[in-house]
Amino acid sequence: MDSKDDNLYYIVTREPETYRRVHPGRLCYIPQYRYESVLKRTDKTSDLLLPVICLGSSVDYRLLFSHIEAVSKMEAELLQALDEDSERLHWFREKTTLKTAVHLKMNTAVFVNEGGKELRGLIRFIGKLTDLPYTHPISSKFFGIELQGEDKGKGPSNGKYNSRTLFTCERNCGIFVPFSRVRPAVPNSLQPPIPQPTSLARSDELNIGDRVTFYLDHDHVGCGMVMDLEWKEGQQFARISTDKDVNGDIGGEVKVPVGIVSKEKVAFAEPEAMDTDTHLVETKTDAHPMGLGVNSRVEVTLGAGDAYGTIRWIGFLPDRQETLAGLELEGNRGVSDGTFKGQRLFSCPPGRALFVKLLTCRPDSRFQDSLANHSEKITSHEIAGRETSLSAGHLDNVAPISTDQVSQVLIGRMKGIQGHCNSCYMDAAIFSLFSCCSVLDSLLYKFTEPRDTPIQNTLLHDIVNPLRSKGFVEGKHVMKLRQQLQNHGYSGTFTTDEKDPEEFLTVIMQHILALEPLLKLSAGGDVQESYCYQIFLDHNHSLVLPTVQQLLEHSFYSAGLKLAEVPSCFILQMPRFGKKFKMFEKIIPSLELDVTDLLSEGPQQCMLCGQVAHEECLDCFKDSLFSPTGFKHFCRTCSSQVHLHPQRRSHRPTPLRILEGFQRHGAAHTLARDKLELFAVLCIETSHYVSFIKHGPGSQDWIFFDSMADRLGEKDGYNIPQVQACPEVGVYLDMSPAELAGQVPRDMKGVAKRLFCDAYMYLYQSTSMCLYR
To answer: Do 159 and 168 form a contact (C-beta atoms < 8 A)?
Structure first.
């Protein structure tokens, strides 16, 4: 990295599953201080979500570290000169050309590709062609070539670009091109040529997922599957998960040159020979002695150690006698996106799918380790109880329902959690937290005191796992949980009366499972801890059609609060007078909640010039000249100018605490924003709770859940829960505030009215902080 640059640069190499606009080949960056701060929180980077900013955007994206690869600043500038993301990724992987271009200097003799012909010339210019906004940390780097000899007059320029003279040459003798169209006339004048590998399996034939044979020496021939292909020092290597190690024991992992690798005849049928009628999907759990089935969390042993994932497919393939399992691994240690030999068996992000024998899978041991770690705290009776529970088939640790599974698992009548006897507050809360989200899964697996373990087991084994695996939970299981809570003495009416979701959540999180408080609020230097936050507003607010962002900012402003740290899960209660009286006719959901300005510590950005802010002015909070609401931060220069105005001379800005040594990171583009993602909304109308779930990145990825949508029979009947897709929500969210204000609630399509008009509680998650808490 350039010593004068404080950013780290990356190129996206795999398609992110959460951002459809970020494609492989996109360049991004992160300030080094930010990178180091994130890295301090974890010892492994395989599943690390890095908050990066894509070039051409001011928004930060949380990308998996395994989905990006580092590039130098010079390489980033060269790659940025290419027009398309796919082209950029191609030339990034074409290491020779890119590395050579880094060393090209002025007056170097080169060949330039123009119209399919190679023209000879000299480099007369290296740099940017146009000025970019100051928010861009780098500019695209191009080469200006003066054509020589017989190729004079074959260019389009005389050294000018957009009327700017970048170098001087005769008419039609100049040309500006990206590095991909330039190569040195004398290659070894820059660096030794990179030798091409001589391989038994040429690189264009060897692919990830191929079964291969490799020859370590004359006495040892190994077999395995190609897990990855990579270039190092001009030679291509294959990373192979072997069937057996060099001693003939359990399989390991080796990295060998492709020159000693040969394809073997694959035992699986090729796609064109595969009979889809014989592709039998087997979902019964009796195929595994421990009851593992689809959606079970498991671990398998690979060459580099244990890998963890979720079973997404179980079945048979032609010419294979044993039952196979398709795993979606937690890290990028797989070989595909759910396809095998061209046939799709399930869907997952690229590089995460792996197909193994079902019998090689075993239950995820990470959720059993807590029993061993705390054995001294558990009585022999409790251990016996847990062993009985495990032997009874309660080993499944089921992952949340993914976006592509929602329609298959969740949508329909008799789906979700069945309501019974005023249970809707608990049904809606549990469904919102656990159906499609894992931010509070630690509640399900953390160590608990023996007296509270039955409650945790009921929540995990009787409610959450069936919800995620089958999409339906009978009302008797929720009643069992309510009875357990009542027997613990927290309320004598848990089994009969309707309660508020926050009361139930506080009992579960604080009193039963002793979860660390989700919120740490700073008030006058003192830190207060909480699990939910109730929004209160003063009487002088001017909000008419507020967003959740505005409500939160106003509430913090009125109460003099700040966040001591970014929460992993933020549960917000909307401003109401009881259950029936709403303060606003409509509230606009904020799909992202930017909490950067709400933090009590950490760098802030001057809202005018973009440099590091030194002061905050609470008196400017409602000054509509800058923005209708929101906390106002200024650098010293801007603060001085702003408060010269007669109407602001009485303001009293307060200094911000700036971390030592941060000044050099003061440019606008270096400040990443801390944002939370909306994943659920609980609503109430006429004392009945329902919930909306944002299950995917698309604007229409919304579902609506009602535990008592219908009823069959009278006194001796039962409630019918229902989950339905509600893509109409996305239509209204795409409207401008003016359009939305003009919508008559009773005329809004589908169930959208309930989201905008009846919101009671918003649930947000931090996709990065939930990895550490």
So the answer is: yes
